[in-house]
Amino acid sequence: MLETQMNIPFPGMDTKDSIRSLTTRYKELMAYYRCAMMEVETKFRVLSENLSLEDDRNPIEAIKTRMKSPESIANKLRSRNLPLTIESIEENLNDVAGVRVICGFPGDIYRLAEAFLRQDDVTLIEKKDYIENPKRNGYRSLHLIVTVPIYLHDEKRLMRVEVQFRTIAMDWWASLEHQIRYKKEVTVTKDDARELRDCAEQAALLDYRMEQLYKNIQGEEITQAGNES
User: Fold this and answer.
1) What 3-state class would DSSP assign to 13?
2) Residue 97, φ and ψ in degrees, nearest 5
3) Which residue of 19, 139, 171, 215 has the fewest C-beta atoms within 10 A of its own C-beta?
4) Phi, psi (deg, nearest 5) at residue 153
5) Smallest Cα–Cα separation from 26: which of 77, 113, 114, 87?
6) Which residues contact 57 (CB under 8 A, 6 or more apart)?
7) 100, 63 contact by CB (below 8 A)
8) Are strands 97-103 and 156-167 parallel, antiparallel or unpaired?
């Protein structure tokens, strides 16, 4: 566990007291991240309800949340040669708490992201658009790092949360690509990597075609309704 890996004695404490103090502080920090994650999730559920009333269609297919494991946190700090301390987690890591929003169409992603960022208690720290500029392996998603306030019994804290937006097709590809590529003792050849990238491009093409079909059909329905009136 991260608590035992962070065995850094504080001045005036013996090792046992140090570990106990670190464990308590780590649990508190993770509780703050969970609260921030719930806050962001609630914001998207409210947006989903509101937009579904406007459009008679829910732009959000699913909302997923996840907390980074202690092992992943420790490994990420080590990979960056950063200290294994509570302060280092909060200062240097942006993705301890994550919210993934799965949408029907690419247009839904940008519409939701804009509505989310317009909220006056959401502050954008970083934006990476892997839809407009996919990663070399074919990965597509819109990533936002934001801060949101959480209100405790005696204070307000600003916490960072990573928000990922994907279409159903993007999420399907990313989930399966992770299963294929990151299994232990599996080597992905250049041909395999090229095939995975091609699958990502085909998924993106399907996204585009389905969105165009939706717009065409919606346009036809609006035209028909206008003619009937």
Assistant:
1) coil
2) -110, 130
3) 215
4) -65, -25
5) 87
6) 104
7) yes
8) parallel
Report residue 158 as tokens: 């600003």
> H-helix or E-strand containing 115?
helix 106-117
DSSP symbol at 144: E
Please state whether 224 falls in left (phi above 0), alpha (psi between -120 and 50) or beta.
Answer: alpha
What are the pLDDT digits (tens) for 18-73? 566 778 899 999 999 999 999 999 999 999 999 888 877 889 999 999 999 999 99
Q: Which residue has the tokens 């937009």?
A: 51
Task: Give CA–CA dist 211/217, Å, rounded.
Answer: 10
> Other CB atoms closer than 10 Å to residue 59's CB: what's the count?
20
- The model's pLDDT over 115-151, given as tens digits with 9 standing for 90+, comes to 999 999 999 999 999 999 999 999 999 999 999 999 9
Separation of alpha carbons 205 and 26, rounded Å: 44
Closest CA to 102 of 47, 51, 60: 60
Smallest CA-to-CA distance from 105 within 53, 142, 136 is with 142
Q: Are 98 and 76 within 8 A, CB to CB?
A: no
Q: Which of 99, 97, 73, 95 is nearest to 86 (CA)?
A: 73
